[in-house]
Amino acid sequence: MIRVQLPYHLRNLARVGSEVTVRVDGPVTPRAVLDAVEASYPVLKGAIRDHDTLARRPFVRFYACGQDFSLDSPDVVLPTDVARGVEPFLVVGAIAGG
Length: 98
What we know:
alpha+beta
C-alpha cells in the first residue's frame, strides 16, 4: 500500500485524516498514485490535477523521500521506500508570497 499525505484543505474535502493509503498495481509513479487517490476519493478529482489535461494544479507540489517531484514527468518511478510504504508520497499545498 502506498501512503499519501494530503494538505489540510484536501483532507477536509475528502473527510479523511492526514494520511490515506491506496493500492497501485504496476510501477509506482506520481500519475499512478494520483489516479489511485482520485479513484478512492472521487471528490478530489480535479482538486489536485486538472480534469482534462491531468496537469498539476498551481500551488500544489509533490514530494517523496525529500525530493520534489512536482516538475518531473508524471511517469517517473518514485523511490522504492514510497513503493514499499516506508515513506509517504506528499501532496503539499504551496504558499505564494514572501
